[in-house]
Amino acid sequence: MFNIILIVGLGGFLGSIFRMLSINFINKFFPYSIGFGTLFVNILGSFAIGICFSYAQNKGLSPLLKNFINTGFLGAFTTFSTFSYENLTFLQSGSYFHLFLNIIFNVILCLLAVWLGFVIFK
To answer: What are the sequence ranges of the domains in the chain?
Structure first.
């Protein structure tokens, strides 16, 4: 268990650094009001988690490497990738009600939580 904690931590460390560098790089080219850097990491992270999970299902992936990439690196790079993957699994299994609830709850409740946190310290 301690090895998994260390490997996830290392992946998270690297993922968060790569996120910052990627966002800063993209925002130099697209300095507009919408966060293109954030959009970029969300799309790239979602693509990467799709590749990783597909590879793990078809070829196999060691639990340590899977935790390093998915939970650590991609978890720090973008949590949107996990959200997207979970929604894809609901869609593929025909669980449209759960898909709808997951999207609505995550978007609405997270926006509400951000607003509440903002209001508390305003």
So the answer is: 1-78, 79-122
Cα 43 vs. chain centroid, distance in angstroms?
Answer: 9
- Tokens representing 30? 């697209």
Dihedral of alpha carbons 84, 90, 96, 100, sign: negative
pTM of the model: 0.76
DSSP string, 58-78: HT---HHHHIIIIIIIIHHH-
* pLDDT tens digits, 82-104: 888 889 999 999 999 999 999 99
How many whole angstroms separate alpha carbon 69 and alpha carbon 12?
9
CA distance 17 to 77: 8
